[in-house]
Task: structure prediction
Amino acid sequence: MKKIIFYISFLSIVLYGQDFRENATYSLFSDVKASQVGDAITILVVETSQAQNTAETSHGRKNSVGFNASGKAGDYKLSDIQFGAGSNNDFSGGGATKANGLIRTKISATIDSVLPNGNLLVKGSRKLSINGEDQTIFIKGVVRRSDIMPDNSVLSYNISEAEIIIDGNGFINDSQKPSWIMRVLNWIF
Result:
């Protein structure tokens, strides 16, 4: 009788065995980390950028041409003839640009594909609408499995080939662009 119970138990385990992935949340010894196509992962976007450029140009040129003539014909003195021309061309210009950027947000992404070396290609986006202003954040890149933290998140600076695009639409975005009249005038002049 013991053998029959053992064989029935063994067969039920083999036939109706549980997927370890399904029960990983109940395991005391393993973390649930994204590793397959379609798994969700949280990306902590923490990006800071600074750029500064300064340029100065100075140019100067000066030209001058002169002609003097005087003479005498017999006892008569001829009037003096003088001719002069001058040119002066100075240019001085300068410019400076400075840009600072700071982005901090969390985006949920999914694994799009698993590369042959085991790295994960992730993609995600988030759209926010506040008072008629739409802001969409796209993120895409390659994540190493070892960079995924135990809470199934990864920092954005650990993503290689990262593309982070922030796009906005609305009244504020439109008011920052020059009008079509100003664009035409800038093109002409």
